[in-house]
Amino acid sequence: MERQHWKKIWVGSAGNMVEWFDWFVYTSFATYFAGSFFPSGNPTAQLMNTAGIFAVGFFMRPVGGWLLGRVGDRRGRKAALTLTVTLMSASAILIAIAPTYETAGYGGAVILLVARLLQGLSVGGEYAASATYLTEASAPNRRGFASSFQYVSMTAGQLVGLGLQIVLQNTMSEDTLTSWGWRIPFIVGAAGAAVVFYLRRSMLETEVYEEVGDTRKEDRGTLAALWQHKREAFLVIALTMGGTVAYYTYTTYLTKYLSNTAGLPKDQATLVSFCALFVFMCLQPLGGLLSDRIGRRPMLITFALGSTLLTVPIMKLLGQAGSFLPAFGLTLLALVIVTGYTSINACVKAELFPTGVRALGVALPYAIAAALFGGTAEYVALWFKNAGIESGYFWYVAGCAAVSLVVYLTMRETRDIDLYRVDGDEAKTEEERSRSDVLTS
Fold first, then answer.
1. Is 239 within the bounds of a domain?
2. Nearest one of 392, 302, 397, 378 to 340, comparing CA atoms
3. What is the CATH number of the domain that holds 137?
4. C-alpha distances in angstroms, 12 versus 34, 78, 142, 240, 389?
């Protein structure tokens, strides 16, 4: 049985890695292809255009969350996960073949936009489907550990993208990368998605989902069913707010910040991100294991306190970091703090909802929060910089963390919730479920 659990975690994580590789290479290679799809001029304006399209992808995530969350609750986690990777493969191919501004005017930008819309649909469903799958596929006392592999695989996907970028930076000239080399990672992503599609077709469904069977199937994955758990849905939005802003600040935006503000060369800024993210990835299972012992709330509260108090000084010091070591140390400090959120946020959200609405309950409210706060983080940061008040963004990040801190302090602990409850049942802890089973036997 333990081997089956690990197989489920491995297949779910492998697909998640490819999904997020495709998602993140857009922003990590944006500095090279920004000029390919928009008229030459102000480099910051070109980056803002590509960041705007990046944000548009986020605003499709609620649609993907609703559509694929519904599929996950009605047809199974496996069906949703297979569909998400299909959409991601198609979007990567579109970006790889998109014509430049010189060739087709704004036609290339339109194709880029369509591809990001498809990616938004895919990732909007992928997050919830993988969070639900990893949480349900694990033993009750190891849900934090198992679900932490969502961010392990997410970070691994980003690391593969950054690693490929480092290789290309050292084997190609900047002119070659700007001309056509930036297309390579999207070709790689499309090929990886095809492999994962094959793996996911043979993956096993979770026992939690299979036990529900046809129970109230007509209500599963519907907005009406989700509305019955509206408090939990709003809770997901609020608890995601601070975490998603902090995460995207220290991942997708970091290389641009180190390059444009701290003055580090692009290749050195990429290396800082790569090394810090590798350590961050290794910390995720440790954070998940710790939450299985002490609970989810202490981890979330530690993250929110650290982000509220330390974001401004960390970002100001990063802006003055003139070499690799101080930039790496400060980035790692920030990511250690963020680990309190990332290592357990998947299981916390999944633990809030019953099986029949779990995928949609995680997907839609999370996607809304990610669109409003995570997807706009880079654009907001560049807006503050362009307006000459870059430090305003640091206070914005700290403020979002402070709002989430209030939520963490008032929410209930979810570690011992029973995932086998069905639609309409009140949340039970494992102890309460065992007591109920004894009384009815």
1. yes
2. 302
3. 1.20.1250.20
4. 32, 9, 16, 22, 42
Domain total in the chain: 1
Higher pLDDT, 295 or 417: 295
* Average pLDDT, integer, range 405-421: 86
Q: DSSP letters of 2-23?
A: HHHHHHHHHHHHHHHHHHHHHH
Residues 216-269: pLDDT tens digits?
566 677 788 888 888 999 999 998 999 999 998 998 788 888 888 888 888 788
The Cβ of residue 313 has, within 10 Å, a number of other Cβ atoms equal to: 12
What are the counts of helices (DSSP H) followed by strands (DSSP E) for the chain?
23, 0
Query: What range does the domain containing 240 cover?
Result: 2-205+228-426
Q: Could you tell me if residue 383 is inside a domain? A: yes
Helix orientation angle between 61-75 and 358-369, rounded to the nearest 10 degrees: 170
As a whole number of angstroms, the distance between CA 363 and CA 127 comes to 7
Please indicate, yes or no, if residue 280 is contained in any of the structural domains.
yes
> What residues contact 126, with CB distance under 8 A and at least 6 apart?
15, 16, 19, 68, 81, 84, 85, 88
Q: What confidence tens digit (pLDDT) does each residue in 333-351 have? A: 999 999 999 999 888 998 9
Cβ atoms within 10 Å of 202's Cβ, excluding its own: 8
CA distance 403 to 411: 13
* Residue 216 domain flag: no
Q: What is the mean pLDDT of residues 387-415?
A: 91
- Enumerate residues 6+ apart whose C-beta is below 8 A from 201: 82
Instruction: Look up residue 419 and give its amino acid.
Output: L
Check pLDDT > 70 for residue 430.
no
